[in-house]
Please model this.
Amino acid sequence: MALVEVKNLKKYFVNNDGFLYKIANKGPINVKAVDDVSFKIEKEDTLAVVGESGCGKTTVARSVLRLIEPTAGEILYRGKLINDFNKKELKDFRSDAQMILQDPRSSLNPRFIVEEIVSEPLYIHDKIKDDFNLLDRVWELLDMVGLSKRYSELFPHELSGGQARRVGIARALALQPEFIVCDEPTSGLDISIMSAILNLMKNLQQEYQLTYLWISHNLHEVRYISNKVAVMYLGKIVEITDTDTIFNNSVHPYTEALFSSLRGINDDWNYKDREIIQGEVPSPINPPSGCSFHPRCKYSFDKCKKIEPELKAVEAGHLTSCHLYN
Amino acid sequence: MFKSQKFFRFKKKIIRVIKIMKNDYKAYLGGLIIMLILISAIFAPFIVPADPYKTNVTKRLEGPSLENFMGTDSLGRDILSRLIYAARPAVLVAFGGIIISVIIGIILGLLAAYVGGILGSIILFIFDVIRAFPPIILILVLLSIIGPSLLSVIVILGVTIMPRYGRVVRAETLSEKEEDFVEAARSLGADNSRIIFKHILPNIFASVLVLSGMDMASMIMWEAGLSFLGLGLQPPLSSWGVMLQESYQYIQTAPLMIVWPALAIMLTMFGFSTFAESLRVALNPKLNQEV
Amino acid sequence: MQDKILKINDLAVEYKNKGSYLRVLEDINLELESGEILALVGESGSGKSTLGKTILRLLPDSARIKSGSIIFKGEDICNLSEKDFNDQIRGQEIAMVFQNPQNALNPVFKVGTQILDVLYFKSKKQKKRKELKKEAVEILKKVGISDPEYRFDEYPHQFSGGMKQRVMLAMAFISNPSLLIADEPTTALDLTVEAQILNLLSNLVEEYKTSILYISHDLGAVAGLSDRIAVMYAGRIVEVAATKELFAEPNHPYTEALLKCLPDYKKTEELQTIPGQVPDLGNYSTGCKFHSRCSYSFERCRKEEPHLKEIGSNHFSACFLNDS
Model:
């Protein structure tokens, strides 16, 4: 049984402008942020979700933890439907499934000192017996992320980006979770700090058998940290398979375009002569008909304009939604 | 046992605020003045040089002298002693009025922001109705209905100023609700009451505190104005506003008399505003990166 | 010998902070050939953005050039009056594009109007704005904006990040600058958009024969764009070399360590880390600024500061290891 299973997840945001606007536009405007997304995450996997702005990866991350209520679809954790959880079950779920947000500092209350920030989950779930127990646990957590005791007295604005990030990780670990959703955890960090955080996350995963859902736009990082990758475009998964395959044998034209824009320092092409995909990601308010990638796809044919392709397997453990393979 | 860590956190935050204010002359200046006023109010019976109620018709309207530093009023009473005693109603109005505004404002503002919907609209409507009246009219009308007294002045001023706090609390709550650290708290399993009391309130409290510092100054001014018009405190009770009114009649013969209560009002207002200004800077963690 | 369009000699820049002065740039020696793309890379606190802004005098009032000179086309532009600098250099001979295109365009004016403004000033107020409209639409087309006539009348918020950055590039190239300073222009953009912008930039450079000082922290992007790279650390330049050579044979320990920290999609071996932290801007120790984090450091590194020395053909490095 997979640890996390998402079935046909949909999240539409309705534009709540006044009714005159709605009349002018013939009905409220639906932004289809996530449009029928399904995937499984096995225990101790790291599933990376990649895609560009507007693809819906952030919405997926929050929906999986039910921080946003899905419009439709089911989310199962350990086989149980979290959509139906009552208050208590949801709270218990929250101690098993944690999140690390994108901006390292803004996820920390600027008026809390580090000790308060890291111990908050312990208070919420009644895990504190006394002050000694509390401080010991906090220092232990800080130590796990490589911060010494003295950091526990500092305010977030006294921390560097990397240190703030570590505090966020320590807080996420406080309840000994099984599953952590990481939303661009290294964005905004310097190269040398990024590598330290990546190594830290990898080590923590090994030591505590953690499972990650890892949102990123940095494909190099994805290669390093994940074993499965899902590529999203305009609210849908266009390709999902294990990491090696995505980098060496991807099949979807968007994946191909995305990865061909990627340059490692040891590649030998220049941007001047490179064939780069043209155009921009269309607005999710008015997606193209049929396959939403067809206007930019160099392989598109007639069927692509009319019919939306389904996510189907091209080989075991490798799915894509493209008419070339259906 | 628990309490010691909580106390430590609190201490750390207070120390930080104090450290910042230590470097700010405004804190000293404003703080000193406020202390002066508070001491006058609390310890009035012990520090007055003479009995403020004792009349002495032979010494009417005298100028400053060794015996009466600020002179005597129309009934021969020592002005300095009266001034000191009058700090009491000033303090009561300032603090009492603010406490009423703040408490009601916070409750209504939080409700409007968190519950929203129809209740929110009703609350906003109440705010707008109160604000639509020019304050002087609203206050005068209410005073004439309820009857002037210290208590009615406090309550009416409190209710009149309340919408400002309500609006600010509502607006800031709405924006703090969307902050990342609130989302993080939710993802940890925090329920609404924890989020409101631990995350949102402390962060909006700074704005409230600063506003109240400014408003305390205005409350004192309002009381003075109302008493001057005879609609505030009634004699024999006395406040600086009442003293202003009494002095006004003798402005031709004893012009210095009106200066003392006026100075007292000015000084107090200045003290509160200045202190509030230094608080504003000290309480904002983002403005102070270097402590 | 190609002419050097930019030559920076011993530049030092300071910021005033609460009474004392923080030295944020020190010992900066840099040359840029005509038509060359030189990348300036470094982490936060390295001073790379500050250097870019110093050249165009875009630093805040609390900053000043302590010493050194900036020779542009043979003339020390530090000596120009503010008026002359503004008329001749800024936006004319030397142009700049910045990181966040959403903040660079005025939100209350149409995009077309803003381009017309630049064209109008370039024509030295000779031509009327109406005559210039055709040219403006052409420019939009050239930078790859589809439906340029339609887009001309739109407002910045209707443009995506990538499109705004294209407009910024267009506006920068209108005056046919000899030098373009690009301060992390693609950091805020998606991967494919970044590739498009870098592709556009390369083509513009070829067409206008502009030299570029490209400031970035993204080594991968820079690898496919620049001819040479200068690595900065703690307000100093620590290494300069041709792009391929820098990546193949880094000399300075910081460069070497930095490259080992980079995740690369072709490699799966464990990433290295650099112990310690980047020092705060202006808050530096004595000796080599990197020595406390350097695995090769020795006694001399603590006391003296190394300077850039030529250690290979057009390869410079500031490290005492090269002295023995």
In short: The longest strand of chain C covers residues 4-17. The CA atoms of residues 112 and 152 of chain C lie 4 Å apart. Chain C has twelve helices and twelve strands.
